[in-house]
Write a structure and sequence with these properties.
Shape: globular
CATH class of the domain at 174-261: Mainly Alpha
Strand content: under 5%
CATH topology of the domain at 174-261: Serine Threonine Protein Phosphatase 5, Tetratricopeptide repeat
Distance between the termini: 62 Å
Radius of gyration: 22 Å
CATH superfamily of the domain at 174-261: Tetratricopeptide repeat domain
Structural class: mainly alpha
């Protein structure tokens, strides 16, 4: 490895990474690390590849090593926190996001992700504050409006939640998740025809959205349209065979119909 131009290799690896060629990028990051095991950038970027490939534990370990070498980069802390959040370590994630904010205090993405981690810890007021800070910094963030609506709905603030979901849908008309959430909210209000309409709007945008099929199945079952509901439950399981809510709903439906499970 003597004489290897690691900076040039790192630049090429980033180019491959940005073009979606993750395996090729990872191989070059590894080559850089073989030549220079203390290259914090390569460790961090290899961790990002691991995150994108669904390897959150590996990502957490690699980003932690990058932070140990250079704790002054907000992006290292951000992606380490995101890896921890993916591993359901919401407490560690919040701590990581706070460290990122100490270095980059006006980043809306950090506030948005921290809001989700706080919500996972059942700290709704703090989560709302984080989302509102994100929206102060980036008022047109459909994702932050949607995430705020989810917390408001769990707090029972249905009118506020509806306003947040509608804002998300207005800002990003192709945002299927916002319509799923509106469907869920209208099921909370027992307005099943309206809920059905929102779920169908979501499915028009994302035909394989498991949450939309599941919600529609619930609404149709409650409307007494059992055959249609079962079709939607089966659609969910064709997308995600282990979808827990649908498995429960399907078992209940079969019991109510008197059919063997």
């Amino acid at each position: 490895m003597a004489g290897l131009d690691t900076r040039r290799l790192l630049t090429e690896a980033v180019r491959l990474h940005q073009s979606g060629q993750l395996n090729q990028a990872a191989a070059l990051y590894q080559t850089v690390l073989t030549a220079d095991p203390n290259c914090a950038d390569a460790l961090h970027l290899l961790g990002m590849v691991a995150l994108q490939q669904g390897q959150a534990q590996t990502a957490a370990e690699l980003t932690a090593k990058a932070i140990a070498l250079n704790g002054r980069e907000a992006s290292y802390h951000f992606h380490h926190a995101f890896a921890l959040q993916t591993l359901n370590d919401s407490r560690g994630a919040v701590a990581g996001y706070r460290r990122a904010l100490a270095l980059k205090p006006d980043d809306p993405d950090i506030y948005n992700n921290m809001g989700n981690a706080l919500a996972a810890q059942d700290r709704p007021e703090e989560a709302v504050a984080a989302f509102r800070r994100a929206l102060t910094l980036q008022p047109r963030s459909a994702m932050a409006h949607n995430n705020l609506g989810n917390v408001q709905r769990r707090m029972g603030l249905l009118d506020d939640a509806e306003a947040s979901f509608r804002k998300a849908a207005d800002l990003q008309p192709g945002f299927a998740g916002a319509f799923v959430n509106l469907g869920n909210l209208y099921r909370d209000r027992h307005d099943l025809p309206a809920a059905e309409g929102f779920y169908r709007r979501a499915l028009a945008l994302a035909p394989r959205d498991a949450a939309a099929h599941c919600g529609l199945g619930l609404a149709l079952w409650q409307l007494g349209r059992h055959d249609e509901a079962l079709t939607n439950y089966q659609a969910v399981l064709s997308i995600d065979p282990d979808h827990p809510e649908t498995l429960v709903n399907l078992a209940i439906a079969r019991q109510e119909q008197g059919a063997p499970e």
